[in-house]
Write a structure and sequence with these properties.
Shape: globular
Helix content: 10-25%
Mean pLDDT: 83
Largest sheet: none
Length: about 60
Amino acid sequence: MDALSPQEAPTKRRSANRQCQNCGHYVTKQFVRVFGANDGSLYGCLSCLTLRDLREGGGKQP
């Protein structure tokens, strides 16, 4: 009979590309997809920009 080894739970790591490059707050993958640049970077979030600025592309520009 094979001994079952306990499986380690995958650790949730906050990826650097899921953080606002301006203030460092964590953002979701979907937020980066919608408001970030095409390369996956984000230069503004709701913590440091207004929603109006984000809608006008403020999260895409350094």
